[in-house]
Amino acid sequence: MSAPGPSAAPGIGVGTWAWGNQFLWGYDPAQDAELAACFRRAVDLGLTLFDTADSYGTGRFGGRSESLLGDFVADLPPDRRQGLTVATKLAPFPWRLGRRGFERAFEASRRRLRGHLDRVQLHWSTARYAPWQEGALLEGLADLLEQGRVGSLGVSNLGPRRLRLVHGRLARRGLRLSSLQVQLSLLAPEALAAGGVALVCRELGIDLLAYSPLALGLLGRPPGEGQGLPAGPRGLLFRRLQPRIQPLLQTMERIAHAHDAPMAAVAINWCRAHGAIPLVGLRRVDQAEAAASAASWCLDDGERRDLDRVAQRCEGRMPANPFQSG
């Protein structure tokens, strides 16, 4: 793993995948008041980047993440909305075809977000299964940017080769690619490999956004295997990985104690130490406070190297996203 060049540590963003997701996160509408309080606390503490997607929300709660985020932003006083960046991702479903294939989806997202939409992102690449679909959709997203209907453009789940192609395509139209979003954590460090997307982002001036920086919560748990497990698929993943990552958790705990910080802050700051903006999933006020507090300190070089070394040797790894392109 290579460290970024000298610069200020990136900020911290908020992910809203869990808002509306029953399957993985056990969402219930009774949680909405707590989610609203969490959002307000995050804004109060200076977190300004909020990421969602039109596919977030399972079953009858499809689109719920965008709707909740839109309502929460609308409830802020006008002066508090300034400075926020609301980003959504549009999914390249098979029926979304052609240059205007995202038109209806974009307008639906904007309605759910109550007009508060600053960045639109391609949710994943179709390069692995329908490469002919992606180019036209990207041109359509570029049209939105060129027409001033959205302020910036990003992509997700692209590898280094695909990222260069998309960046070049937009550059030929005189348009900037603002961000790339990939899975990145101590249990999913592939983006940092030699020739990986982190290096390409630095070269091209693209913000690297790290989703699942806490590995679905695994990296916020202290070492030891006597703890209760989450329900559903997360519990199955925890049961499989937790015994394999104890040396990593022990190293994280040592560093957390040295900074009088929660372990989650160590995982967050490891991403920042590698030049990425972690998108931390938040559902409770205390989680917002823990995430924001991580911005008050940084890992030193020795701590980062210790974590890099233990992560490389770690036997547990997060499942790769099947839509990640090369």
Automatic annotation (TrEMBL):
Residues 12-310 form the NADP-dependent oxidoreductase domain. The keyword NADP does not apply. It holds the Pfam family Aldo_ket_red. Keywords: Oxidoreductase. The keyword Transport does not apply. This is Aldo/keto reductase. It comes from Cyanobium gracile UHCC 0281.
